[in-house]
Amino acid sequence: MTNSSQVSEFIILGLSTNPELDPVIFFAFLIIYTLALVGNLIILILSVVDSGLNTPMYFFLGFLSFLDICCTSATIPKMLTGYVTKSKAISYYGCVAQLFFFTWPMGIELLLLTVMAYDRYIAIGNPLRYSTIINRTICINIAIVITIVGSLNSMTHTYCTFRLPYCDDNKINHFFCEIMPLLKLACADTYVNEIVVFLADFILGMCCFFLTCISYCFIINTILKIRSAAGKRKAFSTCASHIIIVSMYYGAVIFTYIRPRSRLSLEKDKIVSALYAVITPTLNPIIYSLRNKEVKEAFKRTLKRVVVHKVNNITQK
User: Which of 66, 72, 110, 291 has the fewest CB atoms nearer than 10 Å to its CB?
Assistant: First the structure.
């Protein structure tokens, strides 16, 4: 980080420069953020308090929900506050913090989705040894390792972006402090930065994508060997939700970061960024809970315990 920047704050233009659309955007994102926060909190709490979900799969699912909460909370609250106060300004170091705490869960989520694909492969391909290969201790160690790698990735992005000087133009053509819009504002050559960002995302993103594809090749091969149609449907249902999330997430990330500089379009990036930064974290708990009987049953059990506890407290009083 250098002190050569003459900019003390940035102006976030948002999704649209039309003031008439501000109320619509505000209420839409307020509803989306509420759904994302409530849905992911429910999954996170259930994975912790319900003994029926005390498995590696739900440990990773709870961790995914935590990352989704961090991702949406790093961007949307500031955006909503701007619409309420009619001020779209964010301080220089506030922008630094927003970029770091946005890219931090995003990088970890790439690694986590890869681990979750491997977890499904072991569960389907080697169910008898599943609890031995992937236990609670291994899950915690994996979470620590991918968190460290994700943190290094986020620090790299943040340092490379804010080592540049920002002079007169401080208007970010986006709805949060994103890498590409910030590089457009820098009053210095950003070619090296773009190469670093591309390589970091290519290595992390493509490696994770490649490993995920390998896992699913083995999963599909294992499912095809199952003789009964019911067995095939049951095996496929255990990873169908993960396939949907992976497809949405990787498609949006690859479109945004891994493409030629000549094809950059900040207007298109806004829409795509909304997909992986807002929509996908909102859909994660919906997709997993609607397709998962165990999550539904855990929710019913937890809700029943809460109601019984409240009734007992009222009776005692």
Answer: 291
Domain assignments of the chain as residue spans, ordered by start: 9-316
pLDDT attached to residue 287: 78
Q: What is the pTM of this model?
A: 0.86
306's tokens: 């809460």
Q: Write the DSSP string, 152-204.
A: HHHHHHHHHHHTS-B-S--EESSSS--HHHHHHHBSS--HHHHHHHHHHHIII
* 11-25 confidence digits (pLDDT tens): 998 887 778 888 898
121's CB contacts (< 8 A; 6+ apart) are 215, 216, 218, 219, 222
Which backbone phi and psi does 166 adopt, to 5 degrees?
-120, 120
| pLDDT surpassing 70 at residue 149 | yes
Q: What is the CATH number of domain 9-316?
A: 1.20.1070.10
CA distance 69 to 176: 16
What is the model's pLDDT at position 138?
92
Rounded-to-integer distance, Cα 17 and Cα 55, Å: 47
Query: CB count, 10 Å around CB of 207?
Result: 13
- What one-character DSSP code corresponds to residue 21? G
**What are the C-alpha distances in Å from 8 to residues 102, 128, 193, 205, 248?**
21, 59, 21, 33, 36
DSSP code string of 47-110 = HHH-GGG-SHHHHHHHHHHHHHHHHHHHHHHHHHHHHHHT--EEEHHHHHHHHHHHHHHHHHHH
- With contact defined as beta carbons under 8 Å apart, do 60 and 49 qualify? no
Residue 261 DSSP code: G
Judge contact between 9 and 90, C-beta under 8 A. yes
CB of 165 closer than 8 Å to CB of 186: yes
Mean pLDDT of 277-292: 77
User: Measured at the alpha carbon of residue 68, what is the angle toward residues 276 and 16, in degrees to the nearest 5?
Assistant: 45
Q: How far is the C-alpha of 97 from the C-alpha of 103, rounded, in Å?
A: 10
